[in-house]
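Weekly sync notes, structure subgroup
Attendees: PM, AL, DS (notes)

Item 1: joint prediction request from the bench team. They want all two components modeled as one assembly rather than separately. Inputs as received:
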Amino acid sequence: MEETLGELGEFGLIEAVTARLPQGPHVLLGPGDDAALLAAPDRRVVASTDLLVEGRHFRRDWSTGYEIGRKAAAANLADIAAMGARPTALLIGLAAPATLPVRWALDLADGLRDECEPVGASVIGGDVVGAEAITIAVTALGDLAGREPVTRSGARPGDVLALAGRVGWSAAGLALLTLASGGDLGEVAESPLIRAHLQPEPPYDAGPAAAAGGATAMIDVSDGLVQDLGHIAAGSGVAIDVDPAALELSPLLAAAARCGVDPYDWALAGGEDHALAATFPSTAGLPYGWRRIGGVLAGGGVTVTVAGQPYRRAGGWAHFSGDAPVP
Amino acid sequence: MEETLGELGEFGLIEAVTARLPQGPHVLLGPGDDAALLAAPDRRVVASTDLLVEGRHFRRDWSTGYEIGRKAAAANLADIAAMGARPTALLIGLAAPATLPVRWALDLADGLRDECEPVGASVIGGDVVGAEAITIAVTALGDLAGREPVTRSGARPGDVLALAGRVGWSAAGLALLTLASGGDLGEVAESPLIRAHLQPEPPYDAGPAAAAGGATAMIDVSDGLVQDLGHIAAGSGVAIDVDPAALELSPLLAAAARCGVDPYDWALAGGEDHALAATFPSTAGLPYGWRRIGGVLAGGGVTVTVAGQPYRRAGGWAHFSGDAPVP
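Output from the run, pasted for the record:
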């Protein structure tokens, strides 16, 4: 029998998890006290929070604890990058049943750690409580190093729309997982699309690079490209047109479209890849890692179009609706 | 029929909540973007996170959404104060069923806001997701204004043990609520002890005052005085003795003891009042709001004693055990 959280207890779990979490140079006081203390050399701190709920954001039969840790961290670190900042720290809340194997919680911590380390962030604090279902709360903090934050509201007509990272991969991977559900995943499990769904790879460096390169607006594509560009359009009072030819869809997406889906729907409406979308003055060259995918127009009428046309799918992830990506 | 979260939708709820949340002077960029931006004038930021789960930390038939908001904020703001810092911001994650009335979520936001405002903190960000049960994730941030953080590890033999705020009130209020459960609470509902359980009043100012006044160690009493002093004793390698006569129990506690409980057990083992306990050099006067309740001794043997004796109750709140304060 595997040891469970109920057997190890709250303080035992905290001790075991904390021992696995190295503390980076920003950490002045790590886990173990009433609160942690983090350096904020910029005199400002960027902060964002997200909740992940089992059955809605992840399934334990599809993802390991490690993968869920990576993905939970990635979603939040990408929010920090989307402001133009570098992530410095995560705080984690874990609500879980007493029957959960300790191993799963340690794997989760390892995944959080391994997603944080390459970007220089540390898990500096957390909380564990008993609950019926697993819920993971992640708060990410970051530092702008003197840069101005890139919000959703600075896009101007004439700006170039650009993308860093992948779109559609996670949605295609989810479709493959759903197709294979119930049976042995077999070689499908090795698909880079499924890997992309289980463990997204946000282009963290592209956020600060965009801020330094004069980006006028930026967003983390978490709910779907068209839907998230709608937030920039609304925030900036502009219209945005996506050039689908410029999306340069991976051949993998076309191959996976055997499940009867237009791969452009994955790219335009699929979430969870945590690409970054930003707008730049047309006079500026795009920073490394960014590619042009459209342009910014004067506002009025439909705010986001694809090749000049309204996009037919309502698209994107909606909480509290039946349109959850994980059944 | 009351409008529900499912009818209003994620973005409608965020808009309605955000409109109720004033942004204080520390907020450089409030809710509505990928992340918020908060001033950290000290070049350091204090950070802590907590999860509250329905049925374990609160009951909707005992507490209003407003009271739960106040209490959720209080628990986290007290953690910041216990480091010697002033709270500057909260980030909130709310997982809730689609059937939850919008009114309840707005009341929660009002409670969070009203607990934050007097201490100068703002709710700067959040997330809402669908889930079977209500879970509230709270992250608090704070500023030390140049003071050194007061940890759990600096207590020295000979130090004075001091307390700010109330102990035992919340546990007594919970006992009254449990006694009255099922029936109409009637006049019991007006008891200050029940009010203390539903809406604790942490002595926020006492934290920074203790730091400025030379406190050697400090902790937020969230799980029970003896249990939480155990963390200072362990962190500092000392023993701590509580003088029960110095606790100056309120006559209210004695009156409530008609349910057959020794009121000292509430004071020594009851959590959730979010008093602050700290140690001070014996040569220092105690800052305003603090009173002596014992002393620090050389380590070895039982780490926390009451009038020189081991305290008989194992005491305090334990997650993942059957000893949950809310059935």
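Discussion: Confidence is low (pLDDT under 50) at residues 321-327 of chain B.
Action: AL to compare against the crosslinking data before next sync.
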